[in-house]
Design a protein that fits this description.
alpha+beta, 10 helices, five-stranded mixed sheet, Heat Shock Protein 90, 366 residues
Length: 366
């Protein structure tokens, strides 16, 4: 029977199974003749009958290919007459070779015997057609499932890239605006330092694949590039503290996971607070889990019991997309094996905590 996959593979598999199938039919019949002590001539006749079936079902294969888009019931009805013709040809082959005295013990068919033998061969031919349809249908379903999976993966990757690329425009606008201000103030050294930092950060964001993970060390280094740029903008108003456990550095995290969390803290805790704020980045390992947190001592969210990214968005339209996108990225990458919690801190401030599976390169890494 054929197993359609690629054209070359399908052809090879078809001939292997087709020859093997009809060879098996002949072998079973021949062994049956030996078991019943039939003359040797029976074997030659049975071989001729099997060869007729071999050639006849090749014609049925052509018809089945042309019926590939038809419903199964319609295919079955369309095959009745061709299968009957092949079966009758096999019965006629037996009759012809019997009359040629290939087999001394063979008797020519009566009309009733011819019909009964044709009906018997119809079972063999119908079995060939059924097996062909089962295998080809299964292969077709596999191809469709593979195509659907590929389309789903492509859409999934496109969604992650879209979410990732939504993170930087606001930051880029503010940075370029700050560079413009520095140039107007003739502070070219600081402006040059900011441009170099921006260039390094953008190079990382463009090179990072949203479908892959990076080590926490790489992610913190990229976050430091971002924070260094913001320090230039806000000077003494912004303070940053890193509190990362030494066993956390090799842990794998989604690329650019921290940047939107830090950007959220800068926007609402530093930029909107005349006295400035302190941002703390924490990381610790809890057996099989990695806990990350970005905290600030700013004013916090307007509605502590609400969805924080929505309440902060309510304060300033268009802001808060970073937290929302981070939620979606975590769901897309880790499914239910992740958590993201947001809350106000006492007496004031805001925190975003993320919990991810603790993986290192070579241990569950993609």
């Amino acid at each position: 029977m054929p197993l359609p996959t690629s054209r070359a593979g399908t052809s090879t598999q078809f001939w292997l199974l087709h020859v093997g199938g009809w060879g098996g039919v002949f072998l079973v019949g021949y062994l049956s003749l030996l078991a019943n002590s039939k003359p040797d001539g029976f074997g030659r006749v049975w071989f001729a009958v099997a060869a007729t079936g071999f050639l006849g079902t090749l014609g049925l294969r052509v018809l089945l290919r042309s019926f590939a888009d038809q419903p199964p019931v319609r295919v079955a009805l369309l095959l009745v007459l061709p299968a009957l013709i092949v079966s009758a040809a096999m019965a006629a082959t037996y009759e012809v070779f019997a009359r040629l005295h290939w087999c001394g013990g063979c008797v020519s068919f009566s009309p009733l015997g011819f019909g009964l033998y044709t009906a018997f061969q119809m079972y063999v031919v119908a079995g060939w057609c059924s097996l062909y349809l089962v295998i080809t249908t299964n292969r077709q379903l596999q191809r469709q499932a593979t195509a659907l999976l590929h389309a789903t993966d492509t859409a999934h990757e496109a969604q992650l890239k879209m979410l990732r690329y939504q993170l930087t425009p606001h930051f880029l606008f503010n940075t370029l605006n700050a560079v413009s201000t520095l140039l107007l103030d003739r502070d070219t050294a600081t402006a040059n330092r900011m441009v170099h930092g921006l260039s390094a950060f953008l190079r990382y964001t463009l090179d990072a694949d949203p479908m892959q993970r990076v080590t926490l060390k790489q992610e913190v280094d990229a976050a430091t590039l971002y924070l260094d740029i913001e320090r230039i903008r806000f000077s003494d108003r912004m303070h940053v503290t890193l509190d990362v456990g030494p066993d956390c550095w090799p842990a794998l995290v989604p690329s650019l996971l921290l940047q939107p969390l830090l950007e959220n803290a800068v926007k609402f805790a530093v930029a909107r607070n005349t006295r400035g704020a302190t941002i703390v980045l924490r990381a610790r390992r809890d057996t099989d889990w990695l806990h990350l947190a970005v905290e600030d001592d700013g004013p916090g969210a307007a509605a502590p019991n609400a969805d924080v990214h929505q309440s902060r968005t309510a304060v300033t339209p268009g802001v808060g997309v970073g937290l929302s996108n981070t939620r979606e990225r975590l769901r897309a990458l880790h499914g239910d094996r992740q958590e993201m919690c947001v809350a106000n801190r006492a007496p004031h401030g805001f925190s975003v905590e993320v919990r991810l599976p603790f993986d290192v390169a070579g241990d569950g890494a993609r």
